[in-house]
Amino acid sequence: MSKLHNKVAIITGGASGIGAATASLFAQEGAKVVLVDLNEEKGKAFEAELKAKGHEALFVKTNITSEEEVASLFKQTVETFGKVDVVFNNAGIGRVHSSHDLEYSEWRNTVNVDLDGVFLVAREALREFLKADGGVIVNTASMYGWVGSPGSAAYNAAKAGVINLTRSLALEYAEKNIRINALAPGFIDTPIIPEESKEVLRSMTPMKRLGQAEEMAKAVLFMASDDSSFMTGNVLTVDGGYTAQ
Ligand SMILES: NC(=O)c1ccc[n+]([C@@H]2O[C@H](COP(=O)([O-])OP(=O)(O)OC[C@H]3O[C@@H](n4cnc5c(N)ncnc54)[C@H](O)[C@@H]3O)[C@@H](O)[C@H]2O)c1
């Protein structure tokens, strides 16, 4: 039996990278997938690709920082597929910038997407799960939610926030059949990483390679499925050994 048979999964950042790889794997495991992204062109193309393979998929253009758009996303999902079982709360942005001349607007923008947006999606998921019989949330943090690094203060602070948001929400809803865990990826070969940085990031990783989005998807599937049925408030760090150093 497939691991997400007849489940409905919302995947933010679903048009690219880790989100897209996870949407593919979820669909192969029997889920109806709702792809959420700002990038309409990539999102629609990926929706068509999944449908051509015989999967049920829907792209909903949504900015995760908009309360109204996030509410509308859940409404459209329930109208189309009848329910929501799994939310992969994954969309994010990141840019390297020295902190002493980081514009406040850029700080705000990063924290707005990477932490506030994660909260807004989680809040709407909780509202839906409380009406139903529970559900599962997987948030995407980062290994830089555990440890620091130069040039990414806003991103790292937001990702550390995602880790403790995950634990706090998990405890708050543990008795409501709602499980909430997080993924903390290392350096993964997706469009968020500039081509010119890849070599140095490989050399910084103990396994001497970048992770693949498909390797993240397998960890997300574990947390989204009943394979992790007694796990909540946890963070799965998948980083080629980086944070073991
Ligand atoms: N790739 C890595 O090395 C790495 C490492 C640690 C954590 N992460 C995290 O993994 C997640 C996925 O990143 P990725 O590597 O797949 O990058 P990606 O750029 O391929 O995918 C991110 C997607 O999020 C979308 N997005 C950005 N802002 C949005 C918004 N406001 N509303 C809706 N969609 C929005 C983008 O359009 C993009 O399609 C992010 O949260 C990122 O911080 C990535």
UniProtKB/TrEMBL annotation:
<dbReference type="InterPro" id="IPR002347">
    <property type="entry name" value="SDR_fam"/>
</dbReference>
<protein>
    <submittedName>
        <fullName>Short-chain dehydrogenase</fullName>
    </submittedName>
</protein>
<keyword id="KW-0560">Oxidoreductase</keyword>
<dbReference type="GO" id="GO:0016491">
    <property type="term" value="F:oxidoreductase activity"/>
</dbReference>
<comment type="similarity">
    <text>Belongs to the short-chain dehydrogenases/reductases (SDR) family.</text>
</comment>
<dbReference type="InterPro" id="IPR020904">
    <property type="entry name" value="Sc_DH/Rdtase_CS"/>
</dbReference>
<dbReference type="GO" id="GO:0008206">
    <property type="term" value="P:bile acid metabolic process"/>
</dbReference>
<dbReference type="Pfam" id="PF13561">
    <property type="entry name" value="adh_short_C2"/>
</dbReference>
<dbReference type="InterPro" id="IPR036291">
    <property type="entry name" value="NAD(P)-bd_dom_sf"/>
</dbReference>
